[in-house]
Amino acid sequence: MKKFIPHILLVEDNPAHAELVKRSLPKTQLKMKLTHVKNGEEVISFFKNNSCPHLILLDLKLPKMNGQAVLKYIKGHDTLKKIPVVILTTSSSMDDIRQAYLNHANGYLIKPTEFSEFQKIIEKTCNYWLKCNKVPF
Amino acid sequence: MKKNLFKKLIPYSFATRIGILILVAGLIPITVFGTFLLYSFTKILISSLETSIISLEKEQKHRMAKIMEKTAQKYVRDRTIDIARQLDIYLKAHPEKTLSDLRVDPRFRELAIQPVGKSGYTAIQTSDQPIRCVIHKNKEIEGVLLKKFSNKYKDFWQIIKSSSNGRYSYGFYKWFDDKNKKEITKFMYIVPLREKTSDGIRLSVAATISLDEFISPLKNLEHISERFKYSLLIRVKNVFFYYRIKGIILVGIIFLFIIVITAIIGRYFSKEIGAIRSAINEINKGNLDVSIKPFMSGEIEDLIKDFNAMVKVLKETTVKKEALQKTKKLLEELNLELRAYIEKLRKTEEDKNKLIEDLKTKTDELETFIYIVSHDLRSPLITIKGFLDFLEEDYKKNDKEKIQQDINYIKKACESMDMLLKDLLEFSRIGRKKEQPENVSLEEILAEVLFLLSGPIREKGINIEIKTPLPNVYGDRTRIREVFQNLIENSIKYMGEQKNPRIEIGTKRKRGKEVIYVKDNGIGIAPEYHKKIFNLFEQLDAEIDGTGAGLAIVKKILQLHNGNIWVESEEGKGSTFYVYLPQKRS
Asked: How many other C-beta atoms can be found within 10 angstroms of the C-beta atom of residue B447?
């Protein structure tokens, strides 16, 4: 039996924020793999070359193709739509939240300014969604 | 042709026409008929007068004849009685003498045969039957029985017969005169003698006379009456001729009288017609306050009344029309006013709508602004706080490499935040501080910009081409410079790995307006981002420094100048930014 290593896809244009997420993850109980892409185009090319991730953490403010467009693309795709997508963004605008859920986002997280909080949210979300989406490789 | 001649023949004036009509219709037939009547009447009268004169004359003649006859009778009777008395005296004186003695007695004979008138004479005959002629002018007849003539001269015998036995007798009779071979009328008177002859024979005296002797003076009278008759007739004729002339003169006078009356009536009619005509002329001139006083009864009066009624109706209609026109004009004016008012209202409404629109845009902008600010400003804050925590951790571990990394992240975030705040300040400042707009030379502006950017241009070896002449634009000099500075800066920034970097600036007609273009041969922009790039803090490439406020600032400046900006570009083929700036204040 192969060991289950959860795979998370992080879509984040801000390198500092990516680093924050990266450094927040290993502190949890789970061992997991994290792939960081900077924009929408990179997401699409990622799906072409790699297997499906177990969770996608998606920023809304992206250069060129924005987060909502990426979400629409994923949830409109036959196989990719099963992957849980959690929005991780600085925007707390109701329009963004409503639009995200209309585009079938599985969750919506607002980046908190308190780092410990940030860590906890990432940890809990990842744990929850990876457990839900526990599929053998 | 014929009609024209006819028209020419008929006089223009109504009066003359009526005159001619009356003459033709009345006077000429009356004259002709009257003359004819007068002539024929005179003729008949003269002939009847002639007849009556002739009959009167005949009657007169007859009466004259009768009177003559009676005169003749009286004369003959008196003469005969006278002779009979003479003879009686003789017989008394000679009572011894017998008839035979007496017949031969010359004295007695002389007394017995006496002339009566011119042609008449007396004779003696016996008084008793048979009556015999005793003494006669013609001795042959003496002794003849008078009965002998009873067949041939009945009237004669009848007179003789009635004288028998000593009676008086007289009468007319016809006697054939052998000498003149013609029958003549004779008168005879027989008177008996009182004395007898000695032998006792009674005798009578008979006188005869031709009646012509008495009537012949009448013949002369006939001549006279004939002359009288003719002179009378001539007199009558003359009188009639005189009256005929008088009649003609009278007809002439009547003629003149009729002409005068016609002229008067004609004038009257003409006046009437003239009045109507002048009224019509007045109406034609536009004066509708015309009314003709009706001064004739009948059709003409009705005509004038109708005319007046017509004028009244016309006037009313005109007045109505005028009123209608006035109302129409008033309505039109009102309409215009109303239209102007509506236009004003519409403009107000438009202004209001525009204001609302502007307000909405501003609110939207503000919302977007707040959203962007909250999102973009929080981002570096999160980084700083997060890395400060890491820094603390790493400091405890004394991991110098990691500490340095954390500090770098924090530094970058701070710088980013500073830039964001700067740009934000810049963006919000646009339009708040208004400079006096002026005519700005684009060539000057571009020279300034190129001077400011001369460093990076030289560094990247960019070829700049400005296609003169460039127009003057109207606006805030500093802001306009900012626009072109931003655009050229962007072109330099997104030049990519171009070996012959080039920027071209010039003018072109686009979308019906003269626009300024900034064209480069850099990396270009995909069509889906042509609008997005003008949003605040929108960056297509995260690697390139800057906040992504430049084009948002440019767009806002142009909006404030009533201008516009858009881009035409394809990925890898460079981009062209078109700037529209009004040349004069609109």
From this structure: 12
Mean per-residue pLDDT over chain B, rounded: 83
B542 lies within 8 A of chain A by CB: yes
- Could you report the per-residue pLDDT of B533-573, keeping only the tens digit for each? 887 777 777 666 677 788 888 888 888 888 889 998 888 88
The rounded Cα B328 to chain-centroid distance in angstroms is 31
pLDDT tens-place string over residues B215-263 = 776 667 667 777 777 787 788 778 877 877 887 788 788 878 877 887 7
- Check if B371 contacts A (Cβ < 8 Å): yes
Burial of B252 (0-12, 13-18, 19+ CB in 10 A): exposed
CA distance A20 to chain B (A): 7
**What are phi and psi for residue B123, nearest 5 degrees?**
-145, 160
- Chain A residues within an 8 Å CB radius of B387: 16, 19-20
- Find, among A14, A107, A70, the residue nearest to B379 by Cα: A14
Dihedral angle computed from the Cα positions of residues B173, B178, B181 and B185, in that order, rounded to the nearest 10 degrees: -10
Q: Which of B292, B289, B249, B299 is nearest to B271 (CA)?
A: B292
What number of C-beta contacts closer than 8 Å exist between A and B? 65
Question: A13: distance to nearest CA of chain B, Å?
Answer: 7
What's the gap in Å between the CA of B540 and the closest CA on chain A? Answer: 5
Residue among A16, A64, A92 whose CB faces B540 most closely: A64
- Residues listed for chain B: 586
Tens digits of residue pLDDT in A69-92: 889 989 998 888 888 899 988 888
Could you tell me whether strands B169-177 and B575-580 are parallel, antiparallel, or unpaired per DSSP bridges? unpaired
* Residues B113, B94: Cα–Cα separation, whole Å: 18
Place of tokens 């306009």: B480
Q: Which pLDDT does position B426 carry in this prediction?
A: 83
Residues in B touching A112 (Cβ below 8 Å):
382
Q: Taken in order B481, B487, B493, B498, is the CA torsion positive or negative?
A: negative
Look at residue B4 and tell me whether its pLDDT is greater than 80.
Answer: no
Q: Which residues of A touch B (CB under 8 A)?
A: 13-14, 16-17, 19-20, 23, 38-39, 61, 63-64, 89-93, 95, 111-116, 118
| Partner residue facing B412 (CB), from A13, A16, A63 | A16
Task: Please give the average per-residue pLDDT across B441-455, as a whole number.
Answer: 89
Closest Cα to residue A121, out of A104, A106, A108, A105?
A: A108
User: Is the Cβ of B170 closer than 8 Å to some Cβ of chain A?
Assistant: no
* pLDDT tens for each residue of B393-445: 888 988 888 899 889 999 988 988 888 888 888 888 886 767 778 888 888 88
In angstroms, the Cα distances linking B29 to B24, B40, B247 are 8, 16, 15
Q: Are B510 and B578 in contact (CB under 8 A)?
A: yes
B381–chain A Cβ distance below 8 A for any pair: yes
- Count of other CB atoms within 10 angstroms of residue B332: 10
pLDDT at B578: 92
Task: Quote the tokens at residue A121.
Answer: 């949210």
* Residue B101 region by backbone torsions, left for phi larger than 0, else alpha for psi between -120 and 50, else beta: alpha
Tell me how far apart the alpha carbons of residues B470 and B505 are, in angstroms, rounded to a whole number.
9
What is the secondary structure of A3-70 as a DSSP string?
Answer: ----EEEEE-S-HHHHHHHHHHGGGSSS--EEEEE-SHHHHHHHHHHSPPPSEEEE-S--SSS-HHHH
Pairing status of strand B115-116 against strand A107-110: unpaired
CB contact under 8 A, A16 and B409: yes
ipTM of the complex, rounded to two decimals: 0.83
How large a percentage of chain B has pLDDT more than 90? 4
- Is B23 buried (19+), middle (13-18) or exposed (0-12) by CB count in 10 A? middle
